[in-house]
Amino acid sequence: xxxxxxxxxxxxxxxxxxxxxxxxxxxxxxxxxxxxxxxxxxxxxxxxxxxxxxxxxxxxxxxxxxxxxxxxxxxxxxxxxxxxxxxxxxxxxxxxxxxxxxxxxxxxxxxxxxxxxxxxxxxxxxxxxxxxxxxxxxxxxxxxxxxxxxxxxxxxxxxxxxxxxxxxxxxxxxxxxxxxxxxxxxxxxxxxxxxxxxxxxxxxxxxxxxxxxxxxxxxxxxxxxxxxxxxxxxxxxxxxxxxxxxxxxxxxxxxxxxxxxxxxxxxxxxxxxxxxxxxxxxxxxxxxxxxxxxxxxxxxxxxxxxxxxxxxxxxxxxxxxxxxxxxxxxxxxxxxxxxxxxxxxxxxxxxxxxxxxxxxxxxxxxxxxxxxxxxxxxxxxxxxxxxxxxxxxxxxxxxxxxxxxxxxxxxxxxxxxxxxxxxxxxxxxxxxxxxxxxxxxxxxxxxxxxx
Length: 451
Ligand SMILES: [Fe+2]
Hints:
By secondary structure, this protein is mainly beta. It is built from seven helices and 34 strands. Fe (ii) ion is lined by residues 127, 173, 228-229, 438.
């Protein structure tokens, strides 16, 4: 059943295995889908408590001449090596303290870390794959990143942000510009003061990290919310428009405790009735505000917008978002439209359950969506890859790694037409594949030159 595939330990497939392709993988699709996620949930007799604690298992689907190969390797982080050597879990994770304090939830524990000037974090970088310059790193929301060879999946070396820049940790979800530079946000925690956010830029053509600070002259605020993922942001006629996935509380984290995730489905649904679903919300910040702008009225002047920004008596701006869609997570876009006005985003449908079993495409203009699903199948975060020379935003394919709880259905890499969500091909592999979190498509150099 579904529960059995969530927390089972993954197996490495260190040598590439050929997939059996049904349908036709486009010949222009050349490169590697490199992905990350938790793969090992117990070491010796000790087990992790939380799904986000599992040890990183990196895997890849490589596309060449219509053929697909698969491989996977555990990230050889210091955390992995220490745990394996001890044959038990000896490094604390966010949801699993080696000396558990049951009175504290994940957030309380994180704050304890912060207040104590942060002991060393785990380097189990299980969340995402990021690119700095020409190098690829496994990442999580800590001070360490581990470089990974995208072909062999070998762990190359560990980097500590703190040796480069005055931050205590940085996000696992940076952004990139068209020149190949990477932008990320770090958090600097000094004593008992309020944490400071630091935006930094890593040049695409050189090593080293540099500071880049940005200040605004008005204070924008909204109701309290929890955010894990941003969809896109852009400027339009003197406004900043940004779309994010929001929750009204942090219940989602609690759902990912393994004792919840491996519970019988009926119990799980009952226990998580209070789950607050993800909302895709659009915020619009007008930039051309003056101190004498009228108070109490909406200052957003974009004609097709319903999000509002209203100046309060104290001069701050209260932002009321527009809910674009409900029940979608792990968002992705055609990245050529990053920081530009765009129409479509892709993601995993997430309603009552933390196990996404559908992927979908949302049209922000019409507020409609289309879906792909198959019984007993769990597709990963969808990744958009554009057709060569594409002009239309949705001219391309969607890639998703799919695992099934049906033992008769092998794991497969799904290729959809991004416009229609019709299946173009699936590449089934004869080895185990784990459920993952995030990743990126790395075009092969040859196909970049030809496109
Ligand atoms: Fe994430």
